[in-house]
User: Fold this.
Amino acid sequence: MDGSSERSDIPSPGAAPPEEANREAALRADTARLGVWLAVIALSMLFLALIGCFIVQRAGASVWPPEGVRLNAPLGLVATAVIAASSAALEAARRRSARRNREGARLPIQLAGALALGFLGLQTLQYYWLIDNFGQTIRTSQFSTYFFALTGLHALHLLAGVVWLLVLMARGSAGTPLQVELCGRYWHFVTLLWAILFVILYVF
Assistant:
């Protein structure tokens, strides 16, 4: 009787047992999730501090924004819809990736990235609107300072998310389910953050 089949069941020297390997993989995944949550908490504290300063300045101003200055609200609404659609696309990618359909996750990941770039383009148009029509730059008034600072900082973090998506695509088959999940959590945070910024900047 050939003993090769019996020897194939014997773990190679130095190889970890399957149970231990699974525990190590689960630990790495939990550590990665914790890292993303800590990053989200740190960013939340940063934006909360800036938003708090904005609210104090807004409450103490007799006129806000400056007389005759206004944001392009329809453009802001379109941008909000675009970033929300990008978040929905990445959630679809996460679900497909979780079902081990990594190839199926590629298209929604690409769509999320394209929509994010579209959002950044719309935000650039909003900046142009303020500068061209009202001469508002980051140094012109407290209103423009906070608007450019808050939205610009948000745009930088969204751009970081786009780079993350590019890294996933570069690794082939849209990354692993865990990688897509982590990117999705960060992405949803950035989307929620924009929703808050839209309310305080465009509505109130």
Observations:
- Residues 21-203 form a domain with the Four Helix Bundle (Hemerythrin (Met), subunit A) fold (CATH 1.20.120.80).
- The helical segments are 4-8, 18-60, 73-98, 106-134, 142-170, 177-203.
- Confidence is low (pLDDT under 50) at residues 1-8.
